[in-house]
Specification:
Layout (H helix, E strand, L loop, with lengths): L2 E4 L2 E4 L5 E5 L8 H13 L4 E6 L2 H4 L20 H8 L3 H13 L3 E6 L2 H9 L5 E3 L7 H8 L5 E4 L5 H13 L5 E6 L14 H9 L3 E5 L5 H8 L4 E5 L17 H18 L8 H4 L7 E4 L14 E4 L10 H4 L21
Parallel strand pairs: 3-4, 3-10, 4-5, 6-7, 7-8, 8-9, 9-10
Antiparallel strand pairs: 1-2, 11-12
Helix pairs in contact: 1-4, 6-7, 9-10
Length: 348
């Protein structure tokens, strides 16, 4: 299945790249900022805004045990509970945020992290789902989401090929084949040497599904490269400003950066075009810049064309150079002036 359909939008080869702005924690606990993010994402060219549906209690437990302590990386010094308590998007906002997105015609979906989150999202008529990289091993959750028979975009960060296969099979096992897989490097921010964008076409070939990139790297280079390699979906974290400090702001794009990325992707799509060897209308005028066969001396009726009176030169108004040897020692059918492009009707 090389494409899926989200609402009225087809995602897959030969369709425009579907671009997701991930809000995550960048609302900083303020619903007005969350609404502003939706509007700014729309202005920046995003097709979709994404949130995450969990609470600290549904995703982990309140414990200071070493197992729950974050000892390195961006959130070093936090516990899982403390970081998720700060970062979560209140569930009571999400119906309002969905309606706000619908008002301005930008898609809205979410990543659920447990069964209760799926049930909640069903209650607000969510139309498709995201499965996060860290949840790719939660097969019971994946099957429960898939049982809703809605499109699923699944990130594959940290996953081995075998784990990806298990997750895809879990979705398909309940009769759902509406799957898009995203390559993802699950470090924050992701480093270029960890991106391995060549996995993107391999995912498509292996699982016969649309593919893309969930991009935690800085800038838009990886996203542009992914589209060049055939990505159908790009997901980037989006914030109003990195000066508004949140759990995700450090590796998120500001509106003007996101817009530049979207513009570059749309330009790249036009440049990628299609497999077509014909000359475009814009190129046609430059055909004259090619070489062709011209008279370099005056020639009289019945005179032989020789290496002394014809040459292969620019411009391209005459016969193609490949006919040069065929013309040598042929006779002129009448007088011709130096600088005349050769044509078949000049030969006797």
């Amino acid at each position: 299945m090389n494409e899926i359909k989200i609402k009225n939008r087809k995602i897959g080869s030969n369709h425009p790249t579907y671009i997701i702005a991930e809000m995550s924690a960048n609302h900083a606990g303020d619903i007005e900022k969350a609404i502003d993010i939706i509007h700014e994402a729309k202005k920046a060219g995003a097709d979709c805004i994404k949130v995450q549906t969990y609470t600290a209690d549904t995703i982990t437990m309140d414990s200071d045990s070493e197992y729950f302590q974050i000892k390195e990386g961006l959130w070093k010094g936090e516990t899982l509970y403390s970081i998720y308590k700060k970062a979560f998007t209140p569930w009571e906002w999400q119906s309002q945020l969905k309606k706000e997105a619908e008002k301005i015609d930008i898609d809205f979906f979410s990543t659920p992290f447990d069964f209760s989150a799926v049930d909640f999202l069903e209650s607000i008529d969510i139309e498709f789902y995201k499965i996060a990289s860290f949840e790719i091993v939660d097969i019971p959750l994946i099957q429960y989401i898939a049982s809703k028979n809605k499109p699923i975009i699944m990130s594959t960060g940290l996953a081995s090929l075998g784990e990806i296969e298990e997750a895809v099979n879990a979705i398909r096992s309940v009769g759902n084949n509406q799957i898009c897989l995203l390559r993802c490097s699950s470090s924050y921010p992701a480093l270029p040497q960890d991106m391995n964008l060549k996995i993107i076409p391999h995912l498509r070939k292996t699982f016969n599904v649309p593919v893309g990139l969930s991009d935690h790297s800085m800038g838009s280079l990886a996203a542009i490269g992914a589209v060049a390699l055939g990505a159908n979906v790009i997901e980037k974290h989006f914030c109003l400003s990195r000066n508004i400090k949140t759990a995700d702001s450090q590796f998120s794009m500001e509106p003007q950066e996101f817009k530049k990325m979207v513009d570059d992707i749309r330009q790249l799509e036009r440049a990628l075009g299609k497999i077509d060897y014909s000359v475009s209308e814009h190129e046609r005028t430059y055909l004259k810049g090619r070489k062709s066969i011209f008279l370099t001396e005056n020639i009289q009726n019945g005179e032989l064309f020789t290496e002394k009176n014809i040459r292969i030169i620019r411009p391209g108004n005459g016969l193609k150079p490949k006919y040069y040897k065929q013309i040598i020692n042929k006779r002129a059918r009448k007088d011709f002036k130096k600088g005349t492009p050769l044509s078949w009707n000049m030969l006797d």
